[in-house]
Amino acid sequence: MGNSLALVGGPRLADREWPRWPQPGGRALKSLEDVLESGRWTISCAYQGRTSYEQQFATAFAEYCGSALCVPTSTGTASLAVALEACGVGAFDEVVVPGLSWVASASAVLGINAVPVLVDVDPRTYCLDPAAVEAAITDRTRAITLVHAYSAVADLDALLEIARRHNLPLIEDCAHAHGARYNNWPVGAFGTAGVFSMQGSKLLTSGEGGAVVTDDPEIAVRAEHLRADGRVLRREPVNIGEMELLETGQLMGSNACLSEFHAAVLLDQLDLLDEQTLRRSRSADHLSARLGALGLTVQGTATGTTDRAYYRYAVQLPDEILAVAPVHRIAQALTAELGFPVTQTHRPLNDNPLNRPSSRRRFATDAEYMARVEPSQFDLPVARRIHASVVSFGHEVLLAPLDAIEDIALAFEKVLAHIRELAE
Ligand SMILES: Cc1ncc(COP(=O)(O)O)c(C=O)c1O
How many angstroms separate the CA atoms of 48 and 38, rounded? Predict the structure, then answer.
């Protein structure tokens, strides 16, 4: 450990190729060719005599999630907005949103003219803090959204109990958690609805994509309408050349359909997910033992978690290290040693330049609404502290062999040993 840090001109610790993401599986190319030749590139084109890839994916993903029903969507953001509206949430309703998340957690709520109420997170799991949720509920609250964040599962027992007691729908945002399980059952199936993102960085991806899962047939039918311009797939047989989507007009929607290309890729990726989850967990277990011994605090998960999905591996630095160098410098130093990006967590949503409702005329319904949605009014000390003390990296790294994972531990060791080189 005599050498200086790579960030200040020393030699890099690891010089290796890290796994890339996304990774195509064995049947993607054939399926994509099949879609190209099929004459139907989306469910909103005429039926061609066989089950769409979109419906094949819906069936497979519902089963994977232990849910009765799945409505695929174009993005995770759309799936969150669709799920909220399917639960009857609308203009001026308050929705509990975790304060440490991607901007979509707030923007999807704003997108249906509801009011995101930013609530602080648990210091151990970085997921919604049940006590803070309880304190944030008012007579205007109409839904609770949680995020199973980074590599954690939120405290589902406590949050479900609060939702039931207040008679509120609970939406589980599983954008980070494909494959995670709680009490041996897949996440997404515990709440009123579960929503997923299949954007390019996600554990299950088609570049862009999303899905809503639920056991409630009424919510599923509303979600179908909402994602397909007020149309639902016909339940009775359809002739070739006819539209499979039926215009009921029962509920006005927008177009947030998943294309056949995306659905074909998702079916390919679903084949790979469980084996990848296992490999990531093995790497994470090794790394967590090593980093724990160095005095770092690996992100925790709710008691009851039986399988973690490591969308991002996150670890908190001790105060004595942070007293010497700020977290962004430590992240830069680790990036320089390892050759893949190590970053801070999301910026808390009360202080995030992406969460700016006042920048968009669409939301300027009146001054009262604008005051209610102003992010800076919320106090999120735990989220702020996590942002100032946690570094994280993407899940693809955990697919590397164990000797490469050991390099990550060695890079942390090196950066901690040379922390004074990072003082500002
Ligand atoms: C927690 C969470 N929710 C929702 C989304 C939105 O998903 P999408 O980018 O597919 O719209 C993301 C995206 O990263 C996310 O991290």
Answer: 7
202 is catalytic: yes
- Please report, for the chain, the start and end positions of each structural domain, with discontinuous segments joined by +: 28-270
Nearest-CA residue for ligand 1 atom 8 is 76
Check if 120 has its Cβ closer than 6 Å to any atom of ligand 1.
no
Give residue-wise pLDDT tens across range 121-171: 999 999 999 999 999 999 999 999 999 999 999 999 999 999 999 999 999
- Checking DSSP bridges between strand 170-173 and strand 141-147, what pairing results, if any? parallel
At residue 300, φ and ψ (nearest 5 deg) are -90, 175
Q: With a 6 A CB cut-off, is 195 part of the ligand 1 pocket? A: no
Ligand 1: does its nearest atom lie under 6 Å from the Cβ of 220?
no
Write the pLDDT tens digit of every residue in 400-411: 999 999 999 999
Q: Judge if the beta carbon of residue 210 lies within 6 A of ligand 1.
A: yes
Arithmetic mean of pLDDT over the chain: 97
Which of 3.30.479.30, 3.40.640.10, 3.40.1260.10, 3.40.50.2000 would CATH assign to domain 28-270? 3.40.640.10
Q: Six-digit token pair at 82?
A: 């669709």
pLDDT, one tens digit per residue, over 205-253 is 999 999 999 999 999 999 999 999 999 999 999 999 999 999 998 999 9
Q: How far is the CA of 178 from the centre of ligand 1 (A)?
A: 12
84 alpha carbon – ligand 1 mean position (Å): 15
Region class of 234: left (phi > 0), else alpha (psi between -120 and 50), else beta: beta
Q: Does this model's pTM top 0.90?
A: yes
**Helix H or strand E encompassing 394:** strand 390-394
Q: Is the CB of 104 under 6 A from ligand 1?
A: yes
> Which of 142, 178, 181, 202 is an active site residue?
202
Ligand 1 centre distance from Cα of residue 373 (Å): 20
